[in-house]
Amino acid sequence: MPGQDKTGPLGQGPMTGRGLGPCGGGMGRGFGRGKGFGWRAGTMQVMPIQQPAVITEKQEKQFLEQELTALKQEMKEIEERLKGIKK
């Protein structure tokens, strides 16, 4: 909680963060034991490693085309803004 002003980490009010500050009872220690951070009976539980998603060439092509369209639109908007600044 920045500034200790009870606004939470993003200004959304108390009890909206991880509960590590004085409002959450964590007293700022950051250990997280018993708070859902993988600790159980004093030992750390191993979290499974997620495999990366596999996409097909067709999906990759579609994604890249969408990305290219978005970049072209952004470039067009930047060029228009530059023209407006030069005047």
Secondary structure layout plus pairing:
Blueprint (H helix, E strand, L loop, with lengths): L38 E2 L2 E2 L12 H30 L1
Antiparallel strand pairs: 1-2
Note down, in words, how this protein is organized.
The chain is mainly alpha-helical and about 90 residues long. The chain has 2 domains: about 40 residues, no CATH class; about 35 residues. It contains 1 helix and 2 strands; from the N terminus they run ββα.
Shape from CA axes? flat
**Which residues sit in consecutive blocks of at least 5 with pLDDT less than 50?**
none
Number of helices: 1
Tell me the series of helices and strands, N- to C-terminal: EEH
Distance between the termini: 45 Å
Helix content: 25-40%
Number of domains: 2
Q: Count all strands and give the number.
A: 2
Q: Report the portion of residues in β strands.
A: under 5%
Search tags:
single chain; about 90 residues; mainly alpha; 2 domains; two-stranded antiparallel ribbon; 1 helix; 2 strands
What can be said about this structure in brief?
With 87 residues, this protein is mainly α. Helices cover 34% and strands 5% of the residues. The protein folds into two domains: 40 residues, no CATH class; 33 residues.
